[in-house]
Amino acid sequence: MNRSRHISKFLILVIAGSAALGWLVMFLWNWLLPSLFASAHAISYVQALGLFVLCRVLFGGLRGHGGWRHGPGHFGQRWEQMSDEERTKCREAMRAFRGSGNRKRGADKDNAPLAD
Hints:
- The structure is a single chain.
- The protein is mostly helical.
- About 70% of the residues lie in helices and about 0% in strands.
- The chain has four helices and no strands.
- Helix 1 (about 1-35) crosses helix 2 (about 45-60).
- The longest helix is centred in the N-terminal third of the chain and has 35 residues, at about 1-35.
- It starts with a helix and ends in a 12-residue tail after the last helix.
- The mean pLDDT is about 80.
């Protein structure tokens, strides 16, 4: 019995939280977007709930944590665990990646930017 009480409290909290967040999305949308963009129209509560769910699926995931699950220091930790050969390979890959962008802007094959 105690377990079912906790589950029902949790479900009520989830429903109330979702309703409040849907109202918040609707309020912020209707307050900001029509005044910023002439083509933006006010949305209803149901549309705001749909927008909230869509953003949650696309950007936040469904398990309660966001898209950046490893944290800001994850690459630094990976870098420390790499061997010297892996670090060199990573550096070369990054130089090639940055170099491809320079060639699109008109740099020569040595990855040096052109003089004006």
